[in-house]
Prior knowledge:
The protein contains eight helices and two strands. It has helices at about 15-40, 45-70, 70-75, 90-110, 115-140, 160-165, 170-190, 200-214, and strands spanning about 5-10, 10-15.
Amino acid sequence: MHPILVQLGPITIRYYGLMYIIAIAVGFYLLWKEVRRKGIALTMESSLDLLLLTIPVALIGARLYYVVFRLDYYGRYPLDIFKIWEGGLAIHGGVLGGVLAVLLFARWKRVSFWGLADAMAPSLVLGQAIGRIGNLMNGDAYGVPTTLPWGIHFPADSPAGMAYPGMATHPAMIYEMILDLAIFAYLWATRKRGYRDGFATAMYFILYAIARSV
């Protein structure tokens, strides 16, 4: 594993950032399909506006949530707060920021918040699954040491390698990726069953809470 995909002089392309780009692109494609299927009164341009509002707000929320719980480090190195390309985004803060952005957008465009949230729910959890590949390449979001055959020996300079030198750890990020994909499959398979608006959003929070606890 190595966090850097390509190094071209001063330009660095990291797996972590690449996974976010892929997640956003795939997520927007699925979101637009759902917006049209559900008959939400949004144009392609308005849907792009939603993306341009939600992504930065969610990223800021994810970063702030991560930083708040590591103030012992960021208090000493405040400029590192801005180095999001090195990882350090908490999904809890990202979801909270995203919910706020979608709520504001729904009021702005005068569309159903719950209908829009349901359209986004499958894309969100699929994006989380894709993002875990970035965690794998970074060696973060790791589990506890294990002797099981699928335990991973991360590089010594990775977060997992520094936390448990010379020891294999559970690939917790892969476990969550599998569970996220299962949640996506459920939400995508049930989206046409005529449930009231808000059902998919509620199931996302319930199922992800269970997956995260596991």
